[in-house]
Amino acid sequence: MTLVETATKTADTLKGFTRESLEALIASRDEPAWVRDRRLEAWRVLIETPYPTTSDEPWRRTDVKALPISEFSPVGRGDPARSVSPAKGGLSRSGSPTLRGVPADWKRAQKSDDISGALLAVDGAVAGHVAADGLESSGVIFTDMDTALREHGDLIEPYFLTEAVRPSDDYFAALHGAFWQGGTFLHVPRGVEVKLPLRSFTWLSRRDVSAPHTLVVMEPGSRAVLIDEYASARAGGPAFNVGAVELILKDGSQLDYVGIQDWGRGVWNFTNERALVRRDATLHWIASGLGSRLTKTFLDARLIGQGATALLSGVFFADGTQHLDLDTEQNHLAPSTKSDLLYKGALKDSARTVWQGMIRVAQEAPKTDGYQANRNLLLSDNARADSIPGLEILTDDVRCTHGSTVSRIDEEEVFYLMSRGISRLDSETLLANAFFTPVLDRIPLASVRERLKKEIAKKMKA
Hints:
Elements: H1 3-14, H2 19-27, H3 33-47, H4 104-109, E1 117-122, E2 125-131, E3 141-144, H5 145-156, H6 171-179, E4 183-188, E5 198-204, E6 209-210, E7 213-218, E8 223-232, E9 239-249, E10 254-262, E11 267-277, E12 282-289, E13 294-303, E14 309-318, E15 323-332, E16 338-347, E17 352-361, E18 369-378, E19 384-388, E20 391-393, E21 399-408, H7 411-418, H8 424-440, H9 446-461
Helix pairs in contact: 3-6, 7-8, 8-9
């Protein structure tokens, strides 16, 4: 297909995402000129990028022909994002959207003593921003992306869609680069440790398009925990999320990043997420996928400095006719780096999951230590799990291994519990929670761990 044919087909497929709608979006926002330029460059990439099909290797097991992308529009529905000043010890709202439908534990979390700060966005508008005493005085910036661009554009410009996620990565990365709205920015200065976790919440209620951008920049020697949650009403109508996450860890820094996806069953969810881990830095990346109609997520940890470490943990549970596709990469690009991945998934009804994992070791990365494991638990005869590990090693003196299993609940274990007076359903629920516990226990906030356990129990009993 020629470039002209590709551009024509792409424009026809998009319809709601047009050059005119992009210009309207730009005109409605107060953004630096360089942001506008990057949006326009992403648009140029988008119209030259073919729509993904099952002929493309990353999409071979996930067909997106049924995505009604032409029915969605990024502008003209809902109000543009507004910012509120952080409040100490409570929720602050200024011309903010209704909080109807927002999970109660999100509201409670913003008044909790076990976090350093919280940010709540509803339909792209900031509804609450809480900061603990001492957070801002330490130099930490934790705010929504719109405020960050206005007040800290110099800190964002070097990293935003340049080093980690790039519009050229794929079709949906380009779409995000042009039409992104809202999101979270975290910057932790050199040597600063944020003692308690930070939490960011994104809720979608009345809008049908979500395109948040998370950018974390950890300066040398800094430490922080960010719990980044995305959700919408369980029974909501058709919606489309195209998001991006960029994690920048400089020398000797440490970040625990927990991404929790619990979109409603009408949401088509596409995200590109990438971490750059420099010399002696440590990333613990925990991913959770429970919601959406269909999810395709690319997660890439790039170890670009000697001694860098990435520990990757994942939990996903699909039921009904859900389709969850997680594509992970552990890219070792410097010597003496380590990565360790453990993803666990459960399926019931007619759900399908896909996990494609790859450990890549560059020629310049001897003494690499890489491991990946994917464990899947089938809870019905009609569920299907595709588990595809991979290794690509271009140097010597490495230790890289992988493992993959697809199995059912052990009937002897079920019988043992039932013989103690526990019903079959409760027995299977206990065993499913035990299956996930090794990963859930890695989440650094007890309230989040307990909520995920409850959500898993709900899925088991639905």
